[in-house]
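Final report, closing paragraph on structural work. Over the funding period we assembled a curated collection of sequence-structure pairs, and we close with a single example.
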Amino acid sequence: MIVGHLGIALGVRARWRDTPLLPLFAASILPDLVDGPIRVLQLCSPFGLYSHSLPAVAILATIAAAAAFVFTRSRTTALVFALVVALHLPADYITGQKILWADGPIIGLFVYRWPLIDFFVELPIIAAGWYLHRRRATMPPWVLTGLALAAFGAGQALADYRSWLHGPHTPNECEAAELQRR
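Its predicted structure, as stored:
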């Protein structure tokens, strides 16, 4: 999932409106943010072992909750941050393939293979999150306009277009070795 994670964050924030939105967006993509340094350091993390496995997401959710609590002193906000990080994983099971734990199964529908289908899977998630968030009385003014929804949709369309041009994610050497080992 790409922009759909932000839609999930918007939907969650519609329920807990005192939660800061931009940090919540960061929490919604935290496992993906962890992937960046892993790639830069050229660490072998097959199918998201160090960022998207159940143990990794549990650790990231705990870190996000602790950070949210330190900055807000709100247990509710801390739990919301943990929830949003945890919701990253089920969403990625729809669009990608992730390993559950070290030496565990690799699961996921891998909708990324079909960029157009991926777009129509993620677009309703984005739209629902935007709609739920928009209905709240206290919200940033930019959410009121359809411009925010259009920007999210355009971001998803660009990501899917890039995937269509370059093909879906294929296993890297590390992931290929993991598959071969099995």
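The chain has one domain: 4-181. Residues 4-181 form one domain. We thank the funder for supporting this effort.
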